[in-house]
Amino acid sequence: EAMHRQLRNEAWMVQEMRRALKEKQFQVYLQPQYDYKTGSIVGAEALVRWIHPDRGMISPGDFIPLFEKNSFISQVDEAVWRQTCALLRHWLDKGLPVVPVSVNLSRLDLFDVQLPAKLLALREEYHLPAKLLRLEITESAYTQQPQQLISMVEELRRQDFQVEMDDFGSGYSSLNTLHEMPMDVVKLDLRFLAGSENRKGQDIIQAVVQMMRRLQLPVIAEGVETAEQAALLSAAGCQTIQGFYYCRPVPPSEF
Ligand code: C2E
Ligand code: MG
Ligand code: MG
Fold it and tell me: Which of 6, 181, 219, 252 is the most exposed place for a label (fewest CB within 10 A)?
């Protein structure tokens, strides 16, 4: 019965997705990233939400796997990048304080040879300084066709995009990936690491942060839910923190 429901739901999403895109039902939410010491916002991540007029908010976990299978994700992603660029432009024009925003790239995007040109065109269309638009690539994407991916990431970095490795620690090949893949920042997701409530889990977090420092890789910690986790990370040398402890993803107006 659960499988049946799932299939029906997927069929519904496939039927609705094109209209949803046209009617701008895919909306960007922003989750701020904080500097632990100053408590100020130093960046944000753009996270897509499907706001359906009848069904309400649908979270990406429910539709992204499907859209990765049927390739629709590339269109959703492009809409998200465009909305993000428009937001940045809007803040700049209003003279508001502006922080860099990271957008997520799906595995599929990375096999599109047009990707660097598309992103560059957006950055130019909205006259954005390169440092304001950052890219997140999930660690699991790195495990397939690594050669092709390495050259894509190198090309993006040549175009001055800062590339962040998302979900570090969730996959199988984290250590190899660190060694082989070009990247500017590592995103360490506490949800994927051993529990921080016990000594062993704390030691692991500390050791991972220390390793990144040794490799001179800046770290952004995400999935941080408690004051203790934030303090632990800061003590280990990771100052940039994203998580429910500070703030959930919120609509741009609230951000
Ligand atoms: P992600 O890129 O690793 O994003 C972080 C996810 O962790 C977000 O889930 C965020 O809401 C959640 N999160 C943040 N802080 C906490 C916390 O303290 N505790 C817990 N339990 N969770 C926290 P969300 O928004 O549901 O997105 C899930 C995933 O969907 C993202 O993981 C990303 O892989 C993907 N995604 C989201 N937006 C996009 C998009 O525009 N394009 C693509 N291709 N993928 C996206
Ligand atoms: Mg991400
Ligand atoms: Mg992540």
Answer: 6
